[in-house]
Amino acid sequence: MTYRASAPFTEQWRHFRFDVEDGVATVSFDRPDRLNALTIDVYADLRDVFTELEHRDDVAVVVVQGEGRGFCSGGDVGDIIGRLLEGGDQRDVLEFTRMTGAVVQRMRELPKPIIAALNGVAAGAGAVIALASDFRLLARSASFRFLFSSVGLAGADMGCAWLLPRIVGAGRATEILMLGDKVTAEQALAYGLANRVVDNETLADETAALARRLADGPTFAYAATKLLLTREADMSLQAAIELEAWTQAYLMRSADHAEFFRAQAEQRPPAWTGR
Fold it and tell me: In angstroms, rounded to a whole number, what is the distance separating the alpha carbons of residues 47 and 3?
């Protein structure tokens, strides 16, 4: 598959590293001295980059990762408390919480797969960003902490009370969000919160292999699948079946589906174009 460069879009973001290579975009949190804690500016950049990525022809899949010992330890308390609770009013705080939720909304609405590669702790907002991704690959040293209630806030934040029960079930989600206890990599795998747990030293290779498979696959079909998984969560069975019927009828006339039949007849792998 050939990926066309999209020069008009921003390549250098101020508050995290952003790289694109052969269809794979990588967002790297790079504040390792703070376990990649998120500032208000990082949240804003994340919202904006996930908005732009929908329109980039050179990106088929997104990887989110953290530098150093952890994935992301959540919001930077010093930055956020200092700028909001000490210097802002209730409207400023609401604008901030809405912005953090917009990050998750943009991630779920992005018609491209997102892989979260967790090399260490994913806590607070970091845990929710991993949760909002489509695939979660964990090193054995990785863990989750949904610790909002532990600091006197609602255990539900940035949409995690909507997302988590759909992955691990209502009972387990209640326990995780209310108690805020550490969820180890092995527990996450048992709960269905992790797609795969790998040795620490193989995390990068496993992530790259999955990203390559997705980037080289039928990306139009992947986009439709992600859209249906998100939209059908609030639909009746009847509405979901009808939406799937229309979507499938549309994709049956797609170039990728026609290419599958040509490749099958010629006994070769399909050359997907994402169209």
Answer: 23
One-letter amino acid for residue 269 of the chain = P
Tokens standing for 169? 């079930």
Q: Where are the domains of the chain?
A: 17-215, 219-266
d(CA 25, CA 114) in angstroms, rounded, equals 9
Cβ distance 109 to 159 under 8 Å? no
Model confidence over 199-219: pLDDT tens digits? 999 999 999 999 999 999 999
Contacts of 190 (CB under 8 A, 6+ apart): none
Give the C-alpha distances (Å, rounded to integers) separating 260 from 59, 61, 148, 253, 274.
Answer: 22, 21, 47, 12, 12
The answer to whether 25 touches 79, Cβ cutoff 8 Å, is no
pTM: 0.94
Span 18-33, pLDDT tens digits: 999 999 999 999 999 9
Q: Roughly what angle, to the nearest 10 degrees, separates helices 40-53 and 90-109?
A: 30
Correct CATH for 17-215 of 3.40.50.10320, 3.90.226.10, 3.40.50.2300, 3.40.50.300: 3.90.226.10
Query: CA 135 to CA 113: how far, in whole Å?
Result: 8
List Cβ neighbours of 254 (8 Å cut-off, separation of 6 or more). 220, 275
Taking each helix axis from N to C terminus, what angle separates 237-251 and 219-231, rounded to the nearest 10 degrees? 170
Contact (Cβ atoms closer than 8 angstroms) between residue 6 and residue 55: yes
Alpha carbon distance 127, 151 (integer Å): 15
